């Protein structure tokens, strides 16, 4: 099998000053038969497809990733809410640890549980420090993980948490305001975190407009993730 080095696309993007855009699909809010039409509707500059959600019925991830694979050559990364969502059908896995919270289940428990499925995987596993930042509403992440988001005015705590993740060896840092956030992660937070880390920075949650996306890029996001803005597929 050809080894697809997904992480390199992140580091190269930084070197080439190219911005990355991931569109997130929550299988729970998606009809598989609309996969082709959906992929035609997303921006041309989309570089990655993320698939995952806080709660996804068993087996649905694989079916959806397979459907996407038929219609796109863009890399598909699993953005899992828990270890049951991992499928080899995708190209890569964001191996998330929820660093903003103090729930051991999402710091290390789910990760240990995933290992038996990852021993023989073809997925590129990318260690990712995941920080939930207050986005103005109680997010599904906060509800499912029973953790609190870090308030946006606690910039130092956010910066220190991101840096701790990097020092622990995490290859990506992900600032998440939560799907459907009314307030995306502030530009000041993005730029302060960016100054302190030397691994790629992903920002998502509540980013709906071109302007909001550009604000995140200009502040230092290497990748922006958008989900809700493209959830337009009514039954
Ligand atoms: C990805 O959870 C976000 O980080 C997606 O958020 O649905 O608000 O775009 P939106």
Q: What topology does this entry show?
A:
Blueprint: H1 6-15, E1 20-25, H2 35-41, E2 48-51, H3 60-71, E3 76-78, E4 92-98, H4 104-118, E5 124-132, H5 140-145, H6 155-167, E6 172-176, H7 187-196, E7 201-204, H8 210-219, E8 223-226
Parallel strand pairs: 1-2, 1-8, 2-3, 3-4, 4-5, 5-6, 6-7, 7-8
Helix pairs in contact: 6-7, 7-8
This protein binds SN-glycerol-1-phosphate (1GP).
SN-glycerol-1-phosphate binds next to strand 8.
Give a written overview of the molecule.
Helix 4 (104-118) links the parallel strand 4 and strand 5 (124-132). The protein has helices at 6-15, 35-41, 60-71, 104-118, 140-145, 155-167, 187-196, 210-219, and strands at residues 20-25, 48-51, 76-78, 92-98, 124-132, 172-176, 201-204, 223-226. An eight-stranded parallel barrel has the order 1-2-3-4-5-6-7-8, surrounded by six helices. The termini are far apart. It contains eight helices and eight strands. The chain has a single domain (6-226), classed as FMN-linked oxidoreductases (TIM Barrel). Helix content is 35%, strand content 18%. Helix 6 runs parallel beside helix 7 and helix 7 (187-196) runs parallel beside helix 8. With 235 residues, it is an alpha/beta fold. Bound molecules: SN-glycerol-1-phosphate. SN-glycerol-1-phosphate binds at residues 24, 176, 178-181, 204-207, 225-229.
